[in-house]
From TrEMBL:
Organism for this UniProt entry: Hyalella azteca (Amphipod)
Cofactor: Fe(2+)
Any one GO CC term of the record: endoplasmic reticulum membrane
GO biological process terms held by the UniProt record: unsaturated fatty acid biosynthetic process
Domain Fatty acid desaturase, chain residue ranges per copy: 81-290
GO molecular function: iron ion binding; stearoyl-CoA 9-desaturase activity
PANTHER family assigned to the protein according to its UniProt record, in alphabetical order: ACYL-COA DESATURASE (PTHR11351), DESATURASE 1, ISOFORM A-RELATED (PTHR11351:SF31)
Name of the protein in question: Acyl-CoA Delta-9 desaturase-like
Family from the record: Belongs to the fatty acid desaturase type 1 family.
Subcellular location: Membrane
Lineage top rank: taxon: Eukaryota
Transmembrane segments: 58-76, 82-103, 201-223, 235-255
Membrane association type: Multi-pass membrane protein
Primary localisation category: membrane
Length: 349
């Protein structure tokens, strides 16, 4: 039976303690801080163990960014129809929600449940984002939470900003990542028929959803040139979505405040929150990973589009069992482990 089917449905489930903390979410870190220094990025590349580089991925990412730059040129030079630009923006948001609302909050953290039609749409939107299958993305993310900033973390930020951002996708996995992954149970993911279907036919689905569809729609609906459509709605849009996702792994582990737990590397980063539809409130998320909001507050005030969509759908029963930490639990954690930023605000109230 799919993991999101239930007989007793509730709109919200509020935790007054760490009821939902499980084997996927364990932290035991000393107080430490990562500093973003651009010069360090160069040093990281110079000191890289080149024997571990996956050159096929390096070549593919290089070509992708060449197409990305060409796509930007086509837009800025006025060679792209305005409909194509707007269409690309819409696809950007759709693909982004496929990651944030689908892969991240629904499948990886199980922070809420959704009816089959919503899960189906999220599966298509996640395929549009082309960031590995739902199973692979959720697997890696659970390993990240379990072994944050250790060698078993797939995108360990202590290995450098560039590595955390995209370098981890161009090098072989550390043996600890493989060993760590084997200690976790991911069977719940493949029990969802949509996840299993997408994983089995992923390459075909990605070709259709990420490139063929975004190219053909502008060509046939408003007579866009096929190459322009491919470069703008395909490669340029795709690269933007990749980088907004990667900023959560890099910027949101290097730059920002830690009002909920100063012993964690994850930070609160408003810029990342804006780019990643609410995923930038990362210190909160690492403290309460089961919270469907991925932040203490939702809505437009915190650039948390993902939370807004989940809550809107919950009004009609399309999403349900939304898990959240209680206000009292949040305040206790702030006072116990947070830095001074939020404690000052609470004191002045």
């Amino acid at each position: 039976m799919p993991p999101n089917n239930t007989q007793m449905r509730e709109r919200f489930i509020i935790a007054d303690d760490d009821d939902f903390a499980d084997e996927f979410h364990i932290h035991d870190l000393e107080e430490r801080e990562l500093k973003f220094r651009p010069k360090e990025i160069y040093k990281d590349l110079v000191n890289l163990d080149w024997s571990q580089v996956v050159w096929r991925n390096v070549i593919l990412f290089t070509l992708l960014h060449v197409y990305f730059v060409y796509g930007i040129y086509l837009v800025l030079s006025g060679q792209t129809a305005w409909q194509t630009v707007c269409f690309s923006v819409v696809l950007y948001w759709f693909g982004g929600l496929g990651i944030t609302m689908g892969c991240h909050r629904l499948w990886a953290h199980k922070s809420y449940k959704a009816v089959f039609p919503v899960r189906f749409v999220l599966m298509i939107m996640q395929t549009l984002a082309f960031q590995n299958s739902i199973y692979e993305w959720s697997r890696d993310h659970r390993v990240h939470h379990k072994f944050t900033e250790t060698d078993a973390d797939p995108h360990n930020a202590k290995r450098g900003f560039f590595f955390a951002h995209m370098g981890w996708l161009m090098t072989r996995k550390h043996p600890d990542v493989v060993r760590g992954g084997k200690t976790l149970d991911f069977s719940d993911l493949m029990e969802d028929p949509l996840v299993a279907f997408q994983h089995k036919y992923y390459l075909l689905l990605v070709l259709l959803c990420c490139f063929v569809g975004p190219t053909l729609i502008p060509v046939f609906l408003w007579n866009e040139h096929w190459l322009t459509a491919l470069m703008v709605s395909g490669f340029m849009r795709y690269t933007f979505v990749l980088h907004f996702t990667w900023t959560v792994n890099s910027l949101a582990h290097y730059v920002g405040t830690k009002p909920y737990d100063k012993t964690m590397y994850a930070t609160e980063n408003p810029l990342v929150a804006y780019l990643a539809m609410g995923e930038g409130w990362h210190n909160y998320h690492h403290v309460f990973p089961y919270d469907y909001r991925a932040s203490e507050f939702g809505g437009a005030s915190t650039s948390n589009l993902t939370t807004g969509v989940i809550e809107f759908l919950s009004r009609f029963g399309f999403t349900y069992d939304l898990k959240a930490a209680s206000d009292s639990l949040i305040q206790k954690r702030v006072l116990r482990t947070g830095d001074a930023t939020k404690r000052r605000v609470m004191k002045n109230k």
